[in-house]
Amino acid sequence: MNVKVRPATRGDCKEISRMISELAVYEKMPEQVKITHEELERDGFCANPFFECLVAEVPEEHRSKEGEVSTEAFLSPSGSHAHNDESVTSLFLIFPTNHNKHTSTTFRNQPLLFTDSFSQLMSRGFPIVGYALYFYTYSTWKGRSVYLEDLYVMPDFRGKGIGKGLLSKVAEVGKKKQCVRLQLSVLDWNTPSRDFYAAKGAQDITASEGWRSLRFVGQDLDNLANEAPKD
Ligand SMILES: CC(C)(COP(=O)(O)OP(=O)(O)OC[C@H]1O[C@@H](n2cnc3c(N)ncnc32)[C@H](O)[C@@H]1OP(=O)(O)O)[C@@H](O)C(=O)NCCC(=O)NCCS
């Protein structure tokens, strides 16, 4: 399946919002997500947008009506190949878009392996299967920079080059604007993603330069702002 990487539109914000929540679950902090798709629409699609976003889109012909998958799918017991196995069965499946496809489904008491063709069929409920959200920052040492806030590919679509496509497109967009840096943060325990970025050439500046991430929020931010010198 060819997945297309393109700039997000206002109409993609519901899908982006869904994936922001999925990423937060992956990052073990789902309760931290307060943003709504309306806020994404307001902040990303205004005169001076706060962010830009790229999405990975599934071709039209692989989609069904929003919110469910309704299709015949071939499933095979774990380890066998669906098309060569006599035990293959044909099932009628209806999943809501938020169905967790990684629950332990079984057939004849064996764990089922979702084949690649099955995961392609699953995509019918999801027009957008990945995103990269970024914005511009400025380094007083180096100048124009682009900051990658989120990079996410839905589990069924990983390992197919989509993450690399999104990441390299952000690099291309940044280079076109004369950015000399692409920077991001990744959680310490997220070894798969750290390895992914390292494989693409990212330097770990926490290790080499010792930076810590700091944040003001809530009352602390209010207090700080209230202490500002009056104009
Ligand atoms: C990280 C993520 C975006 C990568 O997307 P993906 O579509 O699975 O990655 P790709 O298929 O494009 O992989 C591209 C390349 O990276 C390599 N790669 C992927 N995962 C890797 C890993 N864990 N370790 C080393 N290399 C890896 C692939 O082998 C491939 O190499 P190639 O270019 O030599 O063929 C995706 O796994 C994801 O969404 N993870 C969960 C969310 C997350 O952690 N996001 C980052 C938050 S900072």
Automatic annotation (TrEMBL):
Gene3D superfamilies: 3.40.630.30. GO terms for molecular function: N-acetyltransferase activity. The keyword Plastid does not apply. It comes from the Eukaryota. It comes from Gasterosteus aculeatus aculeatus (three-spined stickleback). InterPro entries: Acyl_CoA_acyltransferase, Diverse_Substrate_AcTransf, GNAT_dom. This is Spermidine/spermine N1-acetyltransferase family member 2b. Residues 53-222 form the N-acetyltransferase domain. Keywords: Acyltransferase, Transferase. PROSITE patterns: GNAT. Pfam families: Acetyltransf_1 (PF00583). Belongs to the acetyltransferase family.
